[in-house]
Design brief:
The chain has 5 helices and 4 strands; from the N terminus they run βαβαβαβαα. With 169 residues, it is of the alpha/beta class. The chain has one domain: 3-Layer(aba) Sandwich (Rossmann fold), CATH 3.40.50.
Length: 169
């Protein structure tokens, strides 16, 4: 891969769980080659405590994580994104702002762990499942030869990563 740092935005409706997990994971897995951000169309205003617990227990920094609106990233002073991924089906169906830089987009739907029913153990299990799915997808993404793929091939690869669940992830 080249020395370029790729900016990646993860979108979800509430920006309290899946997109936060993805942001933290990619910032670790990307080893300086990626700078991840997350946002929501209707941010919850707080990060889900189960997400924070899981990230902290995984040794990932959480101090700078916050639930925020995607409007923060649709202004001229925002980072220019190379990639924008929706990680929830609701956000994928919404009309998104126009992102600076004409980023490559894909939908990587993950079941919402914040919607898990049951006791705390069941909720933690749902967060671990979402974390594992995101970790697998991001590990594949970070290994793609981004500087060697043409736009159509790259788009196909990104869409395939998003379909991992459909193939029995």
């Amino acid at each position: 891969m080249s020395n370029q740092v790729f900016n990646v935005l993860f979108l979800c409706t509430g920006n309290s769980a899946r997109s936060i997990l993805a942001e933290a994971l990619l910032n670790r897995l990307g080893q300086g080659g990626f700078h991840a951000y997350s946002a929501g169309s209707h941010p919850a205003g707080t990060v889900n405590p189960f997400a924070l617990e899981l990230l902290e227990s995984s040794g990932l920094p959480v101090a700078d994580l916050r639930s925020k609106s995607w409007d923060e990233f649709a202004v001229p002073s925002a980072p220019e994104f190379d990639f924008v991924f929706t990680v929830c089906d609701n956000a994928a169906g919404e009309i998104c702002p126009v992102w600076p830089g004409q980023p490559m987009t894909a939908h990587w739907g993950i079941s919402d762990p914040a919607a898990a029913a049951g006791d705390d153990a069941a909720k933690r299990k749902a967060f671990h499942t979402a974390y594992a799915q995101l970790n697998r997808r991001l590990a594949i993404f970070t290994c793609l030869p981004l500087d060697k793929l043409d736009a159509l091939s790259l788009k196909n690869q990104l869409d395939d990563i998003g379909r991992l669940r459909e193939r029995g992830e």
